Amino acid sequence: MATKEPVSRPPALAVRAAAAKPTPFVDEEAMRVVYFAFGEAMIDSESADILRQNAQKLKEDPQLVVTLVGHTDNLGSAAYNLAVADKRIEAVSDRLRSLGVPRNQIRRLPVGSEQSSKQSCDSEACRRKMRRVELVYERR
């Protein structure tokens, strides 16, 4: 009678550790946000540095995917704000691509002022924080 040989399986802890690998800048929100001037989609030097560091993380780990979430302040029509959010996402995406990030690691989600308008925001300082593209990471 033939005996079954034990099946070789990786230790459960190794599997869990691989699945629990943290995404980049999980505790550093400032490294996952690019801010913009009113109605603009230009990337300043500070934002360029942030994107350079994010591009490096993406190139080092092909299992990472970043969703670019574009926000605007609560001024202007919904259609205008959605268009501005899309232009900002395009600028960030183009910069990441120019730094060598493969297209299949970048997703886009323009939300405009849809989520921002739920916030009560009457000051320029508050609106400045609303004009942004967030880099949201996940693993494939």
Secondary-structure map with pairings?
Layout: H1 12-19, E1 33-35, H2 45-60, E2 64-71, H3 78-98, E3 106-112, H4 124-130, E4 132-139
Parallel strand pairs: 2-3
Antiparallel strand pairs: 1-4, 2-4
In total, the number of strands is 4
Shape: globular
Radius of gyration equals 20 Å
Q: What topology, given as strand order, has the largest sheet?
A: 1-4-2-3
Residue windows where pLDDT falls under 50 for at least 5 positions: 6-18
Q: What separation lies between the terminal Cα atoms?
A: 44 Å
Class of secondary structure makeup: alpha+beta
Describe what you observe in this structure.
This protein has 140 residues and is of the alpha+beta class. Helix content is 37%, strand content 19%. It contains four helices and four strands, in the order αβαβαβαβ. It has helices at residues 12-19, 45-60, 78-98, 124-130, and strands at 33-35, 64-71, 106-112, 132-139. A four-stranded mixed beta sheet has the order 1-4-2-3. α3 (78-98) links the parallel β2 and β3. The longest helix has 21 residues, at 78-98. The N and C termini lie far apart (44 Å).
